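hey can u check if this looks right to u? its 213 residues, i copy pasted from the old doc so theres a chance i mangled smth
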Amino acid sequence: MVDNSERIDKFLRKQMTPEENTIFLNDLKNDAQLRKEAQMTALMIKELQERQAKEDSEIIEDVLKSKKKAKTIRMVRWTLSIAAMFILLFGATTLWNRSSNTEVLFNEYYTPFVYQPDRSGGDETIKKELADLYNKVGTEKNITPIISRLQTIYDGIQSNSDDYADYSYYENDIAWYLALAYIKDNNLDKAKELLIPLIENGNEEAKRLLNEI
C-alpha cells in the first residue's frame, strides 16, 4: 500500500501515469485523510513561501558568494511551485477549515429518516421516494444527484406546479434535508436560503443551525 505522502510527492513531481493521475485526483475528492494531508502540505509550503519572501534579498546576496546558495534558491522555487499548485486546486487551509466545519455541522444536525406508513393518507410512493432521498443525503458520497432531485421537487412546490402538488405536504422536511445536503456539499449560501423560510415558520432547530453557519 502506497503511503499518502509518497502519492502526493509522486503527483507533484509529475511521475504518475495518466491513469494514476486520474485516480489520485478522484481520491482527493473522496478521501478526507488524503485531502487533509494535501492541505497540510500546502500549509507547510505556504509558510516556506512567506519566509522566503522575507529572506529573498539576503539569499540573492549570498548566491553571489556561494554556489551552495544557488541550489537553495532552486529548491525554494520548486517548493513555491508546489504551493501554487495546491493553493490553486484546494484553496489552501481556508478551504480545508471550511470543509471541516461544514462536516461537523452536518453530522451534528443530520438524522437518518425512518419511513413509517401511516393512516393519514397521501401517496405512499412519494413518501418512500422522499425517505430514500433523505437517507441518501447521509450515506452517499456523491450527493449531487440527490441535491438535484430534491431541488427540483422543492422548486416545483414553490411554483405551485400540479406535478408536485402532492409533495407540498412535505415541504418543510424537503427544505430541511435539502439544506443539510447543501451543507454537506459546502454550499452554505444555498443552505441559508432554505433555512430562512423554515425559521419564519417557527423552526427553532433551523434557527440554531443558521446561527452556526
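Confidence is low (pLDDT under 50) at residues 91-99.
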